[in-house]
Amino acid sequence: MPVPRVWSSVRLGLSRVLSRTLGGWPSGEGRGMDLSGIYPPVTTPFTATAEVDYGKLEENLHKLGTLPFRGFVVQGSNGEFPFLTSSERLEVVSRARQALPKDKLLLAGSGCESTQATVEMTVSMAQVGADAAMVVTPCYYRGRMSSAALIHHYTKVADLSPVPVVLYSVPANTGLDLPVDAVVTLSQHPNIVGIKDSGGDVTRIGLIVHKTRSQDFQVLAGSAGFLLASYAIGAVGGVCALANVLGSQVCQLERLCLTGQWEDAQKLQHRLIEPNTAVTQRFGIPGLKKTMDWFGYYGGPCRSPLQELSPAQEEALRLDFASNGWL
């Protein structure tokens, strides 16, 4: 059943929003939100019996909240959101907002497969404390997700969202890149403020920056592995899984880029590439959670069907960090 204290605040706002016309939000609703900075995509802790461990979530956020992040992403890919119920997704957002300092932005992943479900989840997450909605591309019917279909989807969501919308392209998980032409069109919507691009194609990121330069539209790199390159071509920040364990170092890389200390930035970027690959492409969320345990946070188990690392995989993971001086 939905958590009562979350849903009690959602019902009124949801009914108000869904009663508006599609053009009901004032023009420029999202403009003015500065996304610049680093965001860890927070993991969802689970107990040994696969229940969401909200206490451990709050402990992790209290520790991470002491670092110079611009904000946090909850219910991104690293949050295992496809494995959570709707009520769990909302409760995670609510608990995160309560645990974080007020000056930290909270971006909540509200994407669902249908437009209607995404609108409802977006409105609900805004009601429980999200500052912006990060909306992943619907992908189950990826063969039919043309630019026209995706533009229609995101426009409807942005029209009805009470908070700014950030587009989210993560082809490694969805098998679908949000087309550049669709991004350019959507960048003109007053309530769409940016994109998190996790594809790793720096040429594409640069083209998006270039093509949207006349709009108040911001690009966030979706990984620490190409953060330096993304800053060099105009990105304003990054949503980086590695920041969950090497947060100070990822923020240091940001500062070096912003102050033009490119030689030092390059050296640091080189030392982050293997650890970043380990907790994203190579070992994924189980690898990230294992390193969190090593670095003083709670990682814990993943929810099935994701599996724990084998001893050999754990040793390889440790080597990727140790060989770069982090363990």
Automatic annotation (TrEMBL):
Highest taxon of the lineage: Eukaryota
Annotated compartments: Mitochondrion
SMART domains named among the record's database cross-references: DHDPS (SM01130)
Catalytic activity: (4R)-4-hydroxy-2-oxoglutarate = glyoxylate + pyruvate; (4S)-4-hydroxy-2-oxoglutarate = glyoxylate + pyruvate
Main subcellular location of this protein, as a coarse class: mitochondrion
Swiss-Prot/TrEMBL keywords: Lyase, Mitochondrion, Schiff base, Transit peptide
Residues at the catalytic site: 168 (proton donor/acceptor), 196 (schiff-base intermediate with substrate)
E.C. number: 4.1.3.16
GO cellular component, one term: mitochondrion
Pfam families cross-referenced by the UniProt entry: DHDPS
Molecular function GO terms recorded: (R,S)-4-hydroxy-2-oxoglutarate aldolase activity; 4-hydroxy-tetrahydrodipicolinate synthase activity
PANTHER family listed in its UniProt record: 4-HYDROXY-2-OXOGLUTARATE ALDOLASE, MITOCHONDRIAL, DIHYDRODIPICOLINATE SYNTHASE
Similarity field: Belongs to the DapA family.
Subunit structure: Homotetramer.
This protein's name: 4-hydroxy-2-oxoglutarate aldolase, mitochondrial
Naturally occurring in which organism (per UniProt): Bos mutus grunniens (Wild yak)
